[in-house]
Structure formats: C-alpha cells, structure tokens
Amino acid sequence: MPAADRAAGRRALLLDAGLQLLGTQGLAGTTVRGLCAEAQLNARYFYESFPDLDSLVVAVFDRVVADLREAVDAAVAAAGPDPVARIRATVASTAEFVDSDRRRARVLYVEGRGHERLQRRRAESSSLIAGLVAAEAAGREPGAAHRIVAAFLVGGFSELLTRWLDGDIPVDRDQLVHAATELFLALGRAGGRLADAAAAAAPTRR
Fold first, then answer.
1. Backbone conformation region of residue 142, classed left if phi is above 0, alpha if psi is from -120 to 50, else beta
2. CA end-to-end span of the chain, whole Å?
3. Could you list the pLDDT tens digit for every one of the 206 residues in the chain?
4. Which pTM does this prediction carry?
5. In CATH, which of 3.40.190.10, 1.10.10.10, 1.10.357.10, 3.40.50.2300 is domain 52-201?
6. Fold entry, domain 1-50
C-alpha cells in the first residue's frame, strides 16, 4: 500500500477514535494518549495527521457535519419537489442521523459549547444550515426575514433534539418529526409574512 494511503488510513482510525471518545466521554475525556489507545496507534502517528488535539476535535466535528449534510441531501432529493415533503425529509433525516448514533448528537450539539475553536465551527455550520433552510422556505434567494426565521429554527431544533435524546421530551421519533415539521412550516409562513411586510415598508424607487 502506498505511504499516502497508509497515512490516510491512520487518520481515519484517529477520527473514528475521536468520535468514540468525544461522543461518550466528552472533551474532558479526550486526550492524545486515549485517542492513540482507542485507535491502536503509536502516538507519533497522531502528530503525523494533526498538529494538536484541538485540530482533531474540529476534524471530528467537520466529518460528522459532512455526514449529516450527505444524509439530509439524499433524503431531500428522494422527497421530490414538494416543499412540505422536503421540509419533513430534512427534519426526519436529521432526527434519524442523531438517534441512530447518539455520539453524533453529543459532538454536534453539546461538546462545542465549551471549546473556542469548535464553538466558532458550530457557528459557521449553523449559519450555513440556516441559509439552506431559508432558501428552502423562501423558494428563492432568501431575504433577511427568512434568514432570521431560519436561524431561530436551526437553534431551536438543535435544542429540541438534545432534550429529546436526553429523555426530557417523552415522544417517539415519528411524533417528534411531525411536531418539528409543523413548527418549521408555521415559522416558514411567518417568515413569508415578515418578508412581505418588509417589502411593503421599503421606500419605493422612482
């Protein structure tokens, strides 16, 4: 096997180990020594792929976000052109993604709150997701009103999923998806009203 492929394989093992430790023990329980033990690699191979522990943590987060985006994109594409079906597919695929592997939820929604670099990454990722939701709700390039609603939805949905996975909201996944979809649709309509009001209040060019 070429050296580059072997290095890529070791990096993948370290990312798998990072998901395991971050998703079960959190940031406090994630160390270079622990990662290498989990991946069954010598410590020198860690520094072959990552300059420091923070870089590994951010890389794990980015990989989980990329996997989520892939799952959501596939579900939305399969849902067809109907906007309601597409919103439901977004909600359902996200809920399934974190419910099927609770480590992902901890990485996405919990651990980033106390880590400066990860918090910045979470903010960037949330802005991207909010933009996608806004575009879906608006059916065109979203304006400020749709972006406000989308940001509100993304933050609220993350909190909802966290509370549900913790058992604070005792409903099954289908009930959760139905309720969240209705909220997405209701707030999407609210965004449309806000956008119309803003357009009506804007000064008319002569």
1. beta
2. 69
3. 799 999 999 999 999 999 999 999 999 999 999 999 999 999 999 999 999 999 999 999 999 999 999 999 999 999 999 888 988 998 999 999 999 999 999 999 888 777 788 888 877 777 666 666 666 665 656 677 777 777 788 888 889 999 999 999 999 999 999 999 998 888 877 777 877 787 788 765 54
4. 0.87
5. 1.10.357.10
6. Arc Repressor Mutant, subunit A (1.10.10)
